[in-house]
Structure formats: structure tokens, C-alpha cells
Amino acid sequence: QRTKLTYESRANLAKSAVAKRLFNLMASKQTNLCLAADLTKADDILDIADKCGPHICLLKTHVDFVEDFSEGFITNLKSLAKRHNFLLMEDRKFADIGNTVSLQYGKGIYKISSWADLVTAHTLPGRSVLQGLKAALGPGDASKERGVFLLAEMSASGNLIDDKYKENSNKIATEGADVDFVAGVVCQSSKTFAFPGLLQLTPGVKIDESVDKLGQQYQTPEHVIQERGADIGVVGRGILQASNVEQAAQTYRDRLWAAYKDRVAK
Ligand code: BMP
């Protein structure tokens, strides 16, 4: 069972080079916390990345709502990622035909493929979403430094994903020529996939409050790691809205990590 294995041992099973890097980073830095830096000002994102950087393995962005996006912002974000040793994920949730996702990934204002170690994509278009994203990286080994998390489930109440969709998403993540490009799956349950070389990223994590006003559903850090099989817990407002964000990041980091240590020890 994949949830019983340590991150170190799973690094060796990963087919994606970025997944291998992330498993090893998590094990050595002792953190399985992803910060969802959902803020609209570049400087606020950089500030929180600097404060929370020591506690996270991954920083997740939505660059399309950053009001003052610039190349300088990306340069600074990359240098913080290097200094504090975390990876960058752009949560773009690509969901179009191959040619379009290729352009959305590589071109435009954001040039996501030039800086994001990881991106997210819906499986709705089928395998061609992976082929399209890979095409933006050009020939050669470029895809080895980049990876995709495929969405197989969502935390939003009333979402339309059913068991068949989950099963087929799992097939896209684990079968075929592009599996070396898939780093993991965004989902809510350990039953969604079994392959231990993939990472389970689970959003909807908060210590208190169980829902927000717009359909988000929350679980505690312990619940997502031990009952839902998450390898990485994604926390946004649980940290962003705390009076002391650094301390909140530390608390989430400690609780998510302790839950993982417990999970592999049992
Ligand atoms: P928060 O902890 O503030 O609710 O933020 C959750 C983050 O995870 C958001 O950036 C959201 O886009 C993302 N997310 C989610 O909440 N549920 C999903 O199923 C998939 C997501 O990417």
C-alpha cells in the first residue's frame, strides 16, 4: 500500500524526475506542506513566500489573478524558491485541446513553462492534454525538469467528477508514453490511485471551519494525511488569513509531518 511507504523509498519508484526531486526534498526538509499563495499583489506573494519558505516543499500560484505580474516577480520568486529550497507549481488547470494548452503553457504574458517546475491539468480532454503540454517544452530532455499533476477529484461541493472519470484519470496518469511527465494526482482520497511513484496532492486543508461560502470543503491536516492518503497537504487561507502567517505555516507543517510519520510507523 503506497500510503505505508516513506517518501524516500517512493522517490526511487517515481517515473517523473520532478516527482523524484520532490519526494527527496520533502524527506530531507521534513515537510509535506504546500502553500497556496492566493494573493493578488506580487510583493505580498514574495513576502509570504519568504516568511513561509522554510516550512514548505511547494508554493502554488494562480498567476492569472496577480494584478502587477512582471518578469521581475518571477525572477524574485525563483530566487526565493532556491534560497528556501521549495518547488513552484502554477495551478493553471489546463483543460483544452493539445495545441491550445501548448500555447497557454509556453507563450503569452506568463510563459509558465519557463519557470513553473509543476503545473496542474484537468484530464477532461484525455491524453492529448499531456502531449500538448510536452510539446511546449520542445524536443530533448526539457520535460525531465517539468511535471504535471492531473486532477482526478475536486474539493468543491457538487463537482461533476464520478467514479468512471476518476478511473480513467488514473489510467492517463499511470499508462502510456507520457507517464514520465506525470508527477502526481490532485485528489481527495487514497483510493483514487495506487502507484506509489506518484504524489497525492490534496487541497481543502484547514484546522478549523469545515466549509467556506463558495463551496470549498475542508478537512484537518491529520484527516487528509491519515484517512485520505494525501502526501502533500495544500493550505491557502488557513495560513494567509492567520494573524501570524509564519507561525501558522509552522503549525500546519508540524501537524502534516507528524501525521505522515504516524502513518508510515503504524
Ligand atoms: P484554500 O486553502 O484557501 O481553500 O485554497 C485552496 C487552494 O487549492 C486554492 O488555490 C484552490 O484553487 C486549490 N484547489 C482546491 O481548493 N480544490 C481542488 O479540488 C483543487 C485545487 O487546486
From TrEMBL:
Domain (Orotidine 5'-phosphate decarboxylase): residue spans on this chain: 32-252
This enzyme's EC code(s): 2.4.2.10, 4.1.1.23
Gene Ontology terms, MF aspect: orotate phosphoribosyltransferase activity; orotidine-5'-phosphate decarboxylase activity
Residues annotated for substrate binding in this entry: D38, K60, S155, Q216, G236, R237
Key words of the record: Decarboxylase, Glycosyltransferase, Lyase, Multifunctional enzyme, Pyrimidine biosynthesis, Transferase
Signal peptide region: none
Pathway entry: Pyrimidine metabolism; UMP biosynthesis via de novo pathway; UMP from orotate: step 1/2; Pyrimidine metabolism; UMP biosynthesis via de novo pathway; UMP from orotate: step 2/2
Statement: the UniProt record of this protein carries the keyword Nucleus: no
Residue positions of the active site: D91 (for ompdecase activity), K93 (for ompdecase activity), D96 (for ompdecase activity)
The organism's place on the tree of life at top rank: Eukaryota
Record GO biological process: 'de novo' pyrimidine nucleobase biosynthetic process; 'de novo' UMP biosynthetic process
Family: In the C-terminal section; belongs to the OMP decarboxylase family. In the N-terminal section; belongs to the purine/pyrimidine phosphoribosyltransferase family.
Protein name, UniProt field: Uridine 5'-monophosphate synthase
Organism: Drosophila pseudoobscura pseudoobscura (Fruit fly)
Name of the encoding gene: r-l
